[in-house]
Specification:
The protein has 14 helices and no strands. The chain is mainly α and 412 residues long. The protein folds into three domains: 47 residues, no CATH class; 188 residues, Tetratricopeptide repeat domain (Serine Threonine Protein Phosphatase 5, Tetratricopeptide repeat); 60 residues, 434 Repressor (Amino-terminal Domain).
Amino acid sequence: MDASKVEQLREFVEQCESNPTLLSDPSLSFFRDYIESILPGKSHVVDESDEDMDDIEDEEAQVPEEEEEEEPEIVESDIELDESDVVEPDNDPPQKMGDASVEVSEENRDASQEAKMHAMEAISEGKFEEAIEHLTKAILLNPTSAIMYGTRASVFIKMKKPNAAIRDATAALEINPDSAKGYKSRGIARSMLGQWGEAAKDLHLASKLDYDEEISSVLKKVEPNAHKIEEHRRKYDRLRKERDDKKVERERLRRRAAAQAAYEKAKKKEQSSSSKRSGGMPGGFSGGMPGGFPGGMPGGFPGMPGGFPGMPGGFPGMPGGMPGGMPGGMPGGMPGGMPGGMPGGMPGGMPGNVDYSKILNDPELMAAFKDPEVMAALQDVMKNPANLAKHQANPKVAPIIGKMMGKFAGPK
């Protein structure tokens, strides 16, 4: 076997050992098949579907998202309250109310006071319905009197009609916001309905304005219930807040984990892409042979009378192909290949007339090879040299092709 071919083969094997991804080049599929056939299970071939496999591995490696833990519904416990004085609410039609904006004459004031006196007599005799009638007459005669409303409210309490009492007490407070009788009557009426918090508030205000023993007695029953309700409310407000905080924290952690997973996946894909981009032999294009074009230069530049069209000189002395070679091939090589090389490839350079170090050491050419537009044009020309004509007008591509032709021309 020719010693030069053996040397070329040795260099090729060394390159494959240093960068196994070279064997993914389609032009070397025959060699890859041969390696796989003699070393089953030990091939370092990188299949073209590696990127898809990486995506599958990424998906498999992802930890399944945990189902969101459902927080149990917060069920409030019952409160033990003293409701011995609570009554059924009265649903009678609202009582007659006066118009506090009217002008009250002295005569009406006097008549109102007289009606009130009759009401007090009826109350002392336990005639509450009669008392309500006299007090209603007194209110209509003098609707600006908070005392009249307050007195009628106290009678409704005796009759266990808390809603009617609350309406009268509220009317009294609208006329006189400092009416102790109004706060007292409304507070007692609210306690009769089990409105402990509101009752405690009204009774405390009444006690500040005009303290009496009845207010104190009612507060002793109202306050414990009000305190229990307040503590109960605070407890469950705290539990709901804790539940909501946990939910927010879980969502924050979930988003953080998803962002981290997305970042790791993007980082891994970027590293994989970078590795594939740098998969060519040193000094050449990705996936190509040392110093060569991607995938080699199949068949040389066949049928090129006098060089590339429109570029004087072309490959000097190359009418119809390389000197002495078969059409589209180099001397002694397989049709469509370089001498001693693998079909479709150009290992080791073009002995005798091409010094690839001049290309690899030319900064302008190496910079141009990184330009996708230049690379696309070069590959187009390599597939069909006749395509050179359509790239001659490109100021970025034409000078590069011309310079490379000069390099291929060999030493002068």
